[in-house]
Amino acid sequence: MKKNVKSIPVFQLPEGTTNGLEVMQFLDFTSGPEAIMPVHRDEHYIFIFQQSGTSVFEVDFKSMILEGAGLMLVRSGQVHQVQNCSGITGWILALDKTLIDDKFRLIFENCEGMLPLYPEKECLQLVEKTIQLISEVHHNKLHARFHRDSLSLLVKAYTGFFAGTIESSLVQTASKPSRPVSISNAFKLALSRDFREVKQPAAYARALCLSLSYLNEVVKQVTGFPVSYWIKDIILLEAKRLLCYTDLNINQIADELGYTDYAYFNRLFSRNTGTSPLEFRRKYHG
């Protein structure tokens, strides 16, 4: 572990980026661990369209392998690293999160356990055509007056293929009323944004103009767990990220997560993970 690492690196779109996006094509690209970027977060979203090859990712402590033709998504704020690439042909779109349709963001923020994606061949063909158009329009500013509008429509179509593939994979969605699903998604989006400052279930209910009992009922119906579970879950995930990828001490990590009672934070972590924060850090680093 590197010394004096006080925060997890946060990568932004390169200076000089236009239109809020970067698009890159790879042709038979191979790279081992020595050439891969360090563990980091991105302020933007990463949309990967792989046409062939094998990629190995670690995203928030979960190993994911994309084999052959498929799609991969890394959300803004997730701690991740590409660990290995072999014979990769495909495209990467780095996209400012403000350019993503709100309906799609709700889907992307609630796709745990569903990645990578393997759409039908016809969908992948449309994905390929769309990313090629995005690249051409982005790099060749034809019809300057309508350039951004044209690019925005193409980006919406492209990200829509990802959102549509995720939604079609949610076998349970069809049997659930749309309102509960929408409410649950809105709660989890608000939680991902505000969990450091807001930890009371009632506060999320108020923000969504709902009673706490109804929000709990809906979230449990859709996800299987109540509101308090998800608040605790995201806090523990962020704590694990900071324990593994920074040198912050336990009190500093508690501060980062909005806790001034350090003993309480220690008890919360230990009770829910079965190990103390320090022991968790030691185990991760061997």
Structural overview:
There is one protein chain. It contains 10 helices and 7 strands. The radius of gyration is 20 Å and the shape is globular. It has 286 residues and is of the alpha+beta class. The chain has helices at 102-108, 121-139, 147-169, 178-194, 201-207, 212-223, 227-245, 250-256, 262-273, 277-284, and strands at 10-11, 21-31, 41-42, 45-59, 62-67, 70-74, 80-95. Helix 4 (178-194) crosses helix 6 (212-223), helix 5 (201-207) packs across helix 6 (212-223) and helix 7 (227-245) crosses helix 10. The mean pLDDT is 90. It has 2 domains: 10-169, Sandwich (Jelly Rolls); 178-284, Orthogonal Bundle (Arc Repressor Mutant, subunit A). A hairpin with a 2-residue loop joins strand 4 and strand 5. Strands 2, 4, 5, 6 and 7 form a 5-stranded antiparallel sheet that branches. It starts with 9 loop residues before the first strand and ends with a helix.
Key traits:
single chain; 286 residues; alpha+beta; Jelly Rolls; Arc Repressor Mutant, subunit A; 2 domains; 5-stranded antiparallel β-sheet; two-stranded parallel ribbon; 7 strands; 20% strand
